[in-house]
Amino acid sequence: MRKDWIRTEEEKQLRQLVKLAREQKKTNSLLNDQQSLITLPTALRKKRRLMIKPTSQELVDNPIYQISLFGSNYILHDNDRILLNNINNAYQLVAAKSDYSYTNQFTSSSSLLQFMNNESIMHESLIHFFKSIPEFKQLDINDQIILIKSNFNNIIHLHYMIMRNFQDRSDIGKHMSKWINEDFHYEMTRTHRYFYRFMNYPLLLKLTLIVFIFSVNLSASWNMNQFYEYKNKRILLEFQNFYTTILWRYLNYLFVEKEAVKAMEIIVMQILRYQLLMVTMTDSVRQSSDSDQFHSLMKSIFGLV
Questions:
Q1: 49 in a structural domain
Q2: 163/207 Cα distance (integer angstroms)
Q3: What CA–CA distance (Å, rounded) separates 182 from 137?
Q4: Which of 12, 19, 248, 295 has its CA 20 to 30 Å from the CA of residue 211?
Q5: Going by C-beta distance under 8 Å and a sequence separation of 6 or more, which residues neighbour residue 228?
Q6: Which pTM was predicted?
Q7: Distance between CA atoms of 143 and 153, rounded to whole angstroms?
Q8: Does residue 29 fall inside a structural domain?
């Protein structure tokens, strides 16, 4: 796929999300406790009322950060706070049950095959997180699979950063230079560091993960002859718009208006940068002589099956 084609899609996606953010900004001044869902479709408003009801006491026990820690540009409504609590706690449950000790076991003799198979653990844990999100869980299984295949390579890096507490993996650089090319790790680290400004707000990245898992036109396909057929693309777009609205409200809660707009631009542009980098990695993975021995999940995500 030519990069100028990819960038055309990137620009469309950026315009779409920034436009939504600006429209939401205009409506924020009109919102109150009764009107907080005014910009959402009727069906989605009804569904949200059901979704935000705690399914267990465990989901809302751990409060999000105290409001005194943030700016006063926007006050979150109770429903928003419950939703964010549920997202945060669902992620913490996944993290608590996963063993990432393998990330410190690579040696100079480690192969791309070993790396890929070990990384399947991280991918599986992120799948478990998405399966705890009501909207994702209610999708047709075919659509769930397509979303994972299409979007995981673009967003898995946010999951890595949260799990590693925003620490660089300098040890992996020499391996990536050998497996991919010399510039790959440098560019990947450079992209990571754009997100490091959010290290005090990991919930922001957890919410971003949900926004982008519902993307239907962001990914550069690994096979130009492959066309995914979603069962219900309209509902995917509704879900993404819903969570983008929540993301925008949360950004305005954390930051003043100018910084919220800048944060949205950074998030979108760096996800698109990950996309281009993963096109490079996918090309290398597909040329690997050991690709037939990769974990089945990694084969699927990298288009080897």
A1: no
A2: 15
A3: 40
A4: 295
A5: 146, 149, 150
A6: 0.74
A7: 17
A8: no
In the numeric block, the tokens 């490079």 are attached to: 280
Burial class of residue 303, CB neighbours in 10 A (0-12, 13-18, 19+): middle
Q: Which domain holds residue 117?
A: 3-24+75-99+111-301
Instruction: Tell me if 64 is assigned to some domain.
Output: no
pLDDT band at residue 291, thresholds of 50, 70 and 90? confident
Q: Phi and psi for 214 in degrees, rounded to 5?
A: -90, 10
Distance of CA 179 to the CA centre of its chain: 25
CATH code at position 179 = 1.10.565.10
- Give all strands (DSSP E) within 108-148, no chain letters: none
Whether residue 155 lies inside any domain: the answer is yes
Q: What pLDDT does 4 receive?
A: 44
As a whole number of Å, the end-to-end CA separation of the chain is 19
Write out the two tokens for 55: 């399914």
